[in-house]
Amino acid sequence: MPLRLLPSTLVDRIAAGEVVERPAAALKEIVENALDAGATRVEIVIDGGGRRLMRVTDDGGGMNAEELALAVERHATSKLDSEDLLAIHTLGFRGEALPSIGAVARLTITSRPKGSDSAHEIRVEGGVKSPVRPAALGFGTRVEVRDLFFATPARLKFLKSERAETAAAVDTVKRLALARPEVGFTLVTDDRAPITWPARARDAAGQRARIADVLGAEAGGNALDVEGVREGARLSGLAGLPTYSKANSLSQYLFVNGRPVRDKVLIGAIRAAYADLLPSDRHPVTALFLDLDPREVDVNVHPAKTEVRFRDAGNIRALIVRTLTDALNAGVPRTASTAADRLAQFARRDFSTDYRPEARPGAYDWTRSWAAPEGLADPRAPGLNEAPARFDFDAPGHSPSGGLGLALAPGADARANAAPAAPEALERPLGAARAQLHETYIIAQTRDGVVVIDQHAAHERIVYEKLKAAMERDGLARQMLLVPLVVELDPSEAARLTERAEALEKLGLVIEPFGPGALLVREVPALLGDADISALVRELAEHAAEWDDALPLERRLLHIAATMACHGSVRAGRRLRVEEMNALLREMEETPNAAQCNHGRPTFVTLALADIERLFARR
């Protein structure tokens, strides 16, 4: 077959296969053009997931008739001042977006430059261009795309449902709106009410306001400010609390010099910063803005401009890890407010019909007929807190209705008044311990609310951070067992753990083989106290196969340390004295990352007094 030049229409359709992968990709190119044209207001209309219609109207600089004709030609751009491809200060370009869209859709561009008394319009349908003609429009540009992929119908079968395509398009607009807080956006789709994001100041406060606008007040309220500089690169934005995480990484919004990207270096650095704070199947919510010299990053390595290449990727990774780590470790422990928010919403429900006993068939009003078992005080009687008392409504023979099966308030250690709160403790972030419930949860009182603490999760984080600090400082102190402990295991598990004996020894756990299927434990980390060493060794053996030998030794040691911390912490079900509870609270306030345990779960929940008062209709 002889060589030949391809027709221009076919060339454009081939280019469209790279640039216009789906409606969201075409929309991204058009909105970026509006932003690069200096728009301060952008209106976007989407119908049929973008396949039937995408219309973008802006108040940017606009184009005259000659520029309109040039805009739909391949490799034409206004975004490059010179031939220096490393000095790009716009949202990027390839010079193929508009002709590629016109090659597979019905494209209409209408524009009027500022200062001109007339507008012009050009149309491209399936790659066929019409002459430029006069039109009516205010200052700015309107780009309308109809019947996407009508000229290449085979591409339609690769599109997802209209709902999925609409969601992708909305996500694209969200990312661009986050990148440019100073621009007002209006988004209209066929499946939801119009959304308007007003223009914000281009500073830290405006950035935070736009993040709250786009991602919601809950995301903004559960995030920390981020600010860091390293070797000319600057990182700013918001990083979500570890306890406010998602099941995927779609809520990670990343920007390089104002350009939305999905970069492996950035995503990997975020993962490393949260490694000790989140389980492997959870992802943090972030909106991070990286600014650096344009010559230090190549933005044209991907047709869709979603990937970049850094000249010094190590410096960027170090900047992100250190800045996020510092932000997450700074200040007093703080956990996500979502649980308290849900309680507040619950408090606003109408109790008048939903919760009256007579409103539900078969419901029993135990408050009218409950009789205190012998030896226990009636909770309705005065003087309840004059002496410690336990009310176990789940205990045999203590059901308020003779076995009705109501789970009300089991196992509460009601000794609040026996431990008056010191005024100075009430001012502390985690307050003063007042009681212990179910021998698992500590109830603390602050000046304006209540804190519920999971004693095991909290102490687990404290022990883990101590193990880490000792490892970094001078190694872990060991405690030699007077009588070595023999632990029976499956032979394969014993062999795997024996292979990792050197790593375990760095953490203070000294083991050696003791015949087939058994290990001898001679020394243990002193920090573990009276932990069940047999149970610890068995759990380590179970998880030894999951330790990734490709990970650096430090990361593998931290995995082991996390397991040790779990076994060396205060267990659920242990009765604590008030002094012990307060000591735990004070230590939490001084411990990095104390708002979540090693598995990413919150260690405490704060309930504002106002929310509690709403529960009882006091507000």
TrEMBL record:
This protein is involved in the repair of mismatches in DNA. It is required for dam-dependent methyl-directed DNA mismatch repair. May act as a 'molecular matchmaker', a protein that promotes the formation of a stable complex between two or more DNA-binding proteins in an ATP-dependent manner without itself being part of a final effector complex. Residues 211-329 form the DNA mismatch repair protein S5 domain. This is DNA mismatch repair protein MutL. Keywords: DNA damage, DNA repair. Residues 377-396 are annotated as: Disordered. It comes from the Bacteria. The keyword DNA damage applies. NCBIfam families: mutl (TIGR00585), PRK00095.2-4 (NF000953). Gene3D superfamilies: 3.30.230.10, Histidine kinase-like ATPase, C-terminal domain, MutL, C-terminal domain, dimerisation subdomain, MutL, C-terminal domain, regulatory subdomain. InterPro entries: DNA_mismatch_repair_CS (IPR014762), DNA_mismatch_repair_MutL (IPR020667), DNA_mismatch_S5_2-like (IPR013507), HATPase_C_sf (IPR036890), MutL/Mlh/PMS (IPR002099), MutL/Mlh/Pms-like (IPR038973), MutL_C (IPR014790), MutL_C_dimsub (IPR042120). It comes from Ancylobacter polymorphus. SUPFAM superfamilies: ATPase domain of HSP90 chaperone/DNA topoisomerase II/histidine kinase, DNA mismatch repair protein MutL, Ribosomal protein S5 domain 2-like. Belongs to the DNA mismatch repair MutL/HexB family.
